[in-house]
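PROTEIN DESIGN WORKSHEET
SECTION A - STRUCTURE
LENGTH: 79
TOKENS:
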């Protein structure tokens, strides 16, 4: 379901996180892989041996909202 909170999350994280391999920001439609350490890279920049999940940046934000907190959610996490 598309909630206001999800829309805020997508808008906030669009182009906020950079690929550690090619140094370009992730757009919501980019195909990404997530490795076993939860590091995101573009599908094309990825080492498939460490794959944990794949999908568009948008799909990954929707599936793992805890990894993409909004400002008012960050106090719940201990770093
Ligand atoms: Zn990349």
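SECTION B - SEQUENCE
RESIDUE ASSIGNMENT:
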């Amino acid at each position: 379901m598309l909630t206001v909170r999800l829309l805020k999350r997508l808008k906030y994280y669009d182009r906020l996180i950079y690929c550690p391999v090619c140094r370009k920001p992730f757009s919501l439609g980019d195909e990404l892989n997530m490795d076993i350490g939860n590091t995101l890279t573009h599908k094309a920049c990825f080492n498939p041996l460490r794959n944990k999940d794949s999908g568009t940046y948008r799909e990954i934000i929707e599936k793992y909202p805890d990894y993409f907190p909004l400002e008012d959610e960050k106090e719940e996490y201990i770093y």
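SECTION C - NOTES
Residues 19, 21-22, 24, 41-42, 45 surround zinc ion (CB under 6 Å).
The chain has a mean pLDDT of 90.
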